[in-house]
Amino acid sequence: xxxxxxxxxxxxxxxxxxxxxxxxxxxxxxxxxxxxxxxxxxxxxxxxxxxxxxxxxxxxxxxxxxxxxxxxxxxxxxxxxxxxxxxxxxxxxxxxxxxxxxxxxxxxx
Amino acid sequence: xxxxxxxxxxxxxxxxxxxxxxxxxxxxxxxxxxxxxxxxxxxxxxxxxxxxxxxxxxxxxxxxxxxxxxxxxxxxxxxxxxxxxxxxxxxxxxxxxxxxxxxxxxxxxxxxxxxxxxxxxxxxxxxxxxxxxxxxxxxxxxxxxxxxxxxxx
Lengths: 109, 153
Fold this sequence. Notes:
The structure holds two protein chains of two kinds.
Chain A: H1 5-12, H2 15-26, H3 32-36, H4 43-55, E1 59-64, E2 67-72, H5 75-84, H6 89-108
Antiparallel strand pairs in A: 1-2
Helix pairs in contact in A: 1-4
Chain B: E1 4-12, H1 16-24, H2 26-32, E2 37-40, E3 47-51, E4 57-67, E5 71-78, H3 82-85, E6 90-99, E7 102-111, H4 117-139
Antiparallel strand pairs in B: 1-7, 2-3, 3-4, 4-5, 5-6, 6-7
Helix pairs in contact in B: 1-2
């Protein structure tokens, strides 16, 4: 069950799953119950999405006693970036991304 | 659970023995771990040092638990940046599990302090090091730039 790229892209191709990744990014190491809070999804749906994310290795889990903790695992996304983004492009891309978020902030603010 | 922590998982097409070797032996770490070497007797209680190519100690700690080629737990304190040294020890764990023709490597790095600067710094560094380690074991070549100590540090 090594992370294949198809699984990673499929797992990312759903807003609910990206939302779960965002939640883990904000607070890493959450249980299923913690993740279910403030989400407009059934526990079963969250479980199903987490399983897909785990299968794609976008989420890593660790058992602590009887609690299963979920962590955002950036490795597959890093490997994808590494494959298509050259070393020298990285600085320019970061500068562009910063410019974009700055301009959008001004627009909204 | 610890206050600052991350868990990274990567699957590498290799054996636990080869991965263990790559994580501990200088001839491998030099190639993917920015030219650093580790000094350690690899037994419980032994001191552990990660040395920069110029001989400076970058990080140091102690072996807490060791079970080759399955598990290694180290205490880990940064020595290059005073604000990180002041935070004291973090704890780093490698877990190696054979899964078919792959080895699942789980890296955990934790600290009992909120918003640890050390954890933030290592969490930025590890993905590239692990990706480079994977590339080294699967293709024989580490990723570009990961065989050199970063300039200015």
